[in-house]
Amino acid sequence: MNSRTESLLRVVAAAVAVCLVVSLFYPGTLASPYVDTNDEFEAIYEHQLHEPVEAAELIERHGEDVDRYHYDELSLAAQQLFDRTKEAPDNTYEPTVCREWTLICDEYSVEDFPDEFAYGTAGHDLGTQEALTRIEYEGEEYVLQTGTTGHGDAVFDVDAFVDDILLWATLLPAGFVLGITALGRGHRRSVTSSVIGGSSLLGLALLTPYIHMAGLAPARVIHWTLLVGVWGSILYVSISLLEDEGND
Asked: Which domain does 54 fall in, by range?
């Protein structure tokens, strides 16, 4: 390897190291593309349809201020959600929803949900009247309940905190080692292997949501595989550096 090629490789290694660190602040890195319906810190897109008898009791209990529509007045998206909820088991329908940062979406995106219905925001419940919508359908009145109520506002997301620790434990050490390799002297073999490994790691980390979306592997499996791979690679690179030091 001549000096010009080695210098170029070191520049590339430094660039990849910086990209690995920067990717820590992108929400799609090593993440699932879908909203977690079991996480109270996520917005809840659940729909529950109350049949006429139960609907009448809800209206009596919560007053006449609940928004009211005739089925034909609803937008196409609202009609589809009403129909799917009505046809679903137990009159409950919770669609799979893509997170807002996804570049492509094979399910519902946040923008697909109609303005007629309210869902709240991540970690914050709706008021009961906000969550209810009266819908007249084929001469009978139903009540569609959306979002979630009664759980209180979320304070601290332990699962997200753990995921963040695992994310940093995967990418930060890789970026650090790659940066040290780029700035060091000698160790020519480790520069090449580090560039290849770092670039592959960066590419997989950013593509994880779409690999998950394609059904090839769950995001969590990819993340744990890369975590183990990173620390195994760090061990390999450390041994290579020691060998190069001995040969110099």
From this structure: 47-146
Closest CA to 6 of 192, 135, 231, 198: 192
Q: Tens digit of pLDDT for each residue in 184-213?
A: 755 666 788 888 989 999 999 999 999 999
- Model confidence over 46-97: pLDDT tens digits? 899 999 999 988 888 876 678 899 999 999 999 999 999 999 999 999 999 9
pTM to 2 decimal places? 0.83
Are residues 74 and 136 both part of a single domain? Answer: yes
Whether residue 24 is found in the same domain as residue 52: no
DSSP alpha helices (H): ranges in 24-68? 52-62
Spatial distance between the Cα atoms of 20 and 200, rounded to a whole number of angstroms: 11
pLDDT tens by residue, 100-111: 999 999 999 989
| Spatial CB neighbours of 103, under 8 Å, sequence gap ≥ 6 | 210
How many beta carbons lie within 10 A of that of residue 33, not counting itself?
Answer: 24
Q: Residue 58 and residue 141: Cα distance in Å, rounded?
A: 11
Query: Is-contact 15 159, C-beta < 8 A?
Result: no
Tell me how many domains the chain contains. 2
- Mean pLDDT over 213-227 rounds to 95
Residue 40 in any domain: the answer is no
Handedness of CA 13, 15, 18, 22 (dihedral sign): negative
Q: With respect to residue 237, please indicate whether it lies within any of the assigned structural domains.
A: yes
Residue 193 · residue 240 · CB < 8 Å: yes
Please check whether residues 62 and 136 belong to one and the same domain.
yes
| Final residue in a domain of this structure, among 146, 170, 199 | 146
